[in-house]
Amino acid sequence: MGIKIVLVDDHRVVIQGLKFFLSTQADLDIIGEAGNGEEAVSLASELNPDVILMDLNMPIMDGVEATRQIKARSPKTKIIVLTSFSDRDHVIPAVRAGAAGYQLKDIEPDELVRTIRAAYNGQTLLHPEATEQLVSHVTDNNAAGSEEQLAISQLTTREKEVLYHITLGKSNKEISADLYITEKTAKTHVSNILSKLNVHDRTQAAINAMKYGWFD
């Protein structure tokens, strides 16, 4: 069996469209469907899927609350938000709830498959508009827990500077210019940051920085 997927959306036409395309992928197996967040929570507990494609605005229970409950019970399940909304009021709560990806419904089919495979492998892919909302967001006054404080405390002063530039969406070339270091040095700092924070990519590092308010 390939990557086990549950589809969650209150519009049947969306579910059918996803099934039609995803079923053509040999490594993807659709094992369940839900029409609201409450059904999604129940199915996640029953079927233990690898990945859930989660709509946000649904009756009975919305996608953010469903994501929160599923992640609390099944931390290993990866949830990818698939929605029509890219504003901060939707993106930030979804990420805080534990979403491992955030894509819009106008996504190209091949990119959706890439997002599913990336989430399954522990990586994060976000729609550019969602990324923009994250890196421009100043989090509220949530205090980071001891685990998160330990993570950021492992970074050197220079690495914290580089991480801050990552949250601004800067490339290695841009970081090297801003901090007056070589691009090779910037790349080394980025690699060290990902290792120390135990994340797979720059997007996840930026998400953690924003989520825990490291640069508030």
TrEMBL record:
* Boundaries of every Response regulatory domain copy: 4-120
Task: Provide the GO biological process annotations.
Answer: phosphorelay signal transduction system; regulation of DNA-templated transcription
Q: Does the keyword ATP-binding apply?
A: no
Alphabetical list of Pfam families matching this protein: GerE, Response_reg
**Keywords attached to this entry:** DNA-binding, Phosphoprotein, Transcription, Transcription regulation
Give all residue intervals belonging to the HTH luxR-type domain: 148-213
Note the Gene3D superfamilies from the entry.
3.40.50.2300
Q: Which residues carry this modification: 4-aspartylphosphate?
A: D55
GO molecular function annotations of the record: DNA binding
- Which PROSITE patterns is this protein grouped with? HTH_LUXR_2 (PS50043), RESPONSE_REGULATORY (PS50110)
Which PANTHER family does the UniProt record give?
Answer: TWO-COMPONENT RESPONSE REGULATOR
Q: What is this protein called?
A: LuxR family two component transcriptional regulator
